[in-house]
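Hello forum,

I keep getting stuck at the same step: I have a sequence, I want structure tokens, and every attempt I make locally crashes halfway through. Rather than fight my setup again tonight, could one of you with a working pipeline run this one for me? It's a single chain of 483 residues.
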Amino acid sequence: MSSSTGFPLYRGDMRYRCLGCGKNHGIDELLYTCPDCGEVLLLEDASFDSLKKTPGKQWRAIFDARAADKTPALRGIFRFYEVMAPVLEEEDILYLGEGNTPVIEAAPALLRSVGARFAFKNDGQNPSASFKDRGMACAFSYLKALVRRHQWTDVLTVCASTGDTSASAALYAAYVGGPIKSVVLLPCGKVTPQQIAQPLGSGALVLELPGVFDDCMKVVEVLAERYRVALLNSKNSWRILGQESFSFELAQWRNWETKHLCVFVPIGNAGNVTAVMRGFLKLYHLDIIDSLPRLFGVQSHHADPVYRYYAAPEHSRRFEAVRVSPSVAQAAMIGNPVSFPRVKKLAEEYRAVGGERAFQVIQVTEQAIMDSMLEANRHGHIACTQGGECLAGLKEAKAAGLLDAAEYCVLDSTAHALKFIDFQNMYFSASLPAVFGIEPDPALTNRPGLLLTAEERQGMDEKEFVREAAATMARLLRLEART
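Reply #2:
Ran it on my machine without issues. Output:
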């Protein structure tokens, strides 16, 4: 199964499959939608069934052994090579430290407060501080293969972003260098300073557009249709493949036991929830896991088209884009997710295997998102607003009686808390714009206090200043002097 260097020998027969007309297309060029009907694509390995000749128990042993492998190409997401993108050569695989993010059990006091057993998977501990690196590692590895094969000398990568995609795309483009250049398009004023600083620091050309993410997405879609550019949004099927590694890692962390497991994922542009479903389905079809975890997609009431679709009676469901309102979970602020056709198709397959309760969508409020993020981080976590969205979804699911007592929940915290620190600061200072509809809870706010003023320090020498500051602090903290 492996070469002398330890790299897998298996090569699949990867093809783009259209979710509209069902036609297959070769992978020797960049495709984002079907050339015949314009619908979105999924990448499939036509040789996948041949992997079933290897028993599930043996696959588990292979993947477990690779967890300790020192081969750079197998250290990250590609240790699951055969079930992800098994057409890439070792020389093309890019590794910047992505994947293997920790699953952290909720702090004891938080567990008691929420009343459910759960943990965060901290995908903010990827290189660019978000889960997007999983998909970018795969997309850029494929792009490297195309550049080598076609001897391209000038490749422009483009993406629309609410922050995390642009940071990740710019980072990986900067590392690969050579013919690859990065351009990112952001909705003006809708990205945190921390997130806009990342692509700037990586040297990308950063452009802003009045409007929201959906407007930016339409622009880059036109570019991808008319010009030879590498689109790096979730329309890029190679990105979806890379993000499937979240499911593989989670199953491996559970020692491949997924019974009584629930996973909460923010929906946003719907690429991640697509990947998580597909990853678990692959493991199930190869008998690597015996049952599918239950999957909950979570959406803010400010951007909830997928929730509305599944909340409607099955016979009358019709997907409609919605006009979004500002959300603190900025990656969720998408009213027309490009990957919805993938969600619909995979949810049907997921439910066919796991039953109607296997996939559900929860709606939460902006207030609940922000409060939940702060509550998690007050208990020692590093959850972003999307992590807060998932915790709010867990609370909502529990309140609605959707969880069983034996179930264990893992929440996808897609980015690092520091990316959204401005929202925390506005919450603490009660300066969040009214459009968010959030009222700060005094029990969750925290502000720095001034120990001594500059005026009070005037005229003191250093020793006197230190003594006075220490005495003031002791009074404030009600400390008792040593006897």
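Residues 132-150 form the longest helix (19 residues). If your local run keeps crashing, start a new thread with the error log.
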